[in-house]
Amino acid sequence: MSEDNDIGAEQADAARPAAEEEVGAAVATAGEPQAREAAGGGARAAPLRFPEMRDGAGGPESPLERVYDLTVPVTVELGKAQLTVQQILQLAPGSVVELDHSADAPVEMYVHGKCVAHGEIVVVDEFYGVRITSVA
Question: Which pTM was predicted?
Answer without folding.
Answer: 0.49
